[in-house]
Amino acid sequence: MLRVLVADDEPLITAGIRTVLESAGDIEVVATAADGSAAVLAALEHRPDVALLDISMPVLDGLGALDELRRRLPATRTVVLTSYGTEPNVLRALQHGAAGFVLKHCAPDELVRAVRAAHTGDAYLSPEVTRLVLGMVAPAAGRRREAAERLSALSPREKEIAALVAEGLSNADIGRRVHMSETTIKTYVSRVLAKLGCANRVEVALLVRDGG
Questions:
Q1: Is the pLDDT of residue 83 over 80?
Q2: Where, per the database record, does this protein carry 4-aspartylphosphate (predicted)?
Q3: What 3-state class would DSSP assign to 77?
């Protein structure tokens, strides 16, 4: 079973997330928390595979909890739950190593996919979140040049895969687009991350955007 911690200060949302995740059959919600500090303590006790953190929580917000979990439980992957809109904190979460971003109004199966993807190291990004992040960052000329230089290390096929990652597509979706297996795409994505020196798929998306 995939063990998950859910942290949100709205009990109804927490209950709904638990229901959605546990209905998947292979996911167990081992703990819940109503604030970021409680989330960190629960994570230290239960050692979840994935922590699903709302950004806006009392005592310690989701980003503070993310920082603590990265420092104290680096093996626990973190997915940030966010509302749609201008969300500058999403960029900070990216910089601090969030494994994925999910919108609160997403479909239930998307939430399940995001948690599973984070667990396997193949972070999930809602297409809307990818567009949100990219829309928040206007690349400077120097950053455009640097991005272009880094992207030049990729083969044509790797550049194609990187561009599709930047669209917010999952490995399965990319595989269908280019007529390759999901396993093959996962290998390509891992290679792209390594060559570009990116920690996650959002960083690849930002680099592709910066490089034009």
A1: no
A2: 54
A3: strand
Please tell me the distance from the alpha carbon of residue 162 to that of residue 130, in angstroms, as a whole number.
13
- The CATH number given to 2-134 is 3.40.50.2300
Are the beta carbons of 90 and 112 closer than 8 angstroms? no
User: Rounded to 5 degrees, what are φ and ψ at 6?
Assistant: -115, 125
State pTM to two decimals. Answer: 0.67
Q: What is the pLDDT of residues 134-162, one digit of tens each?
A: 665 555 566 778 888 899 999 999 999 99
- Domain ranges (residues) in the chain: 2-134, 139-210
Does the domain at residues 139-210 carry the CATH identifier 3.40.50.720? no
pLDDT at 52: 94
Q: What share of the chain is helix, strand, coil (3-state, %, to 5)?
A: 55, 15, 30
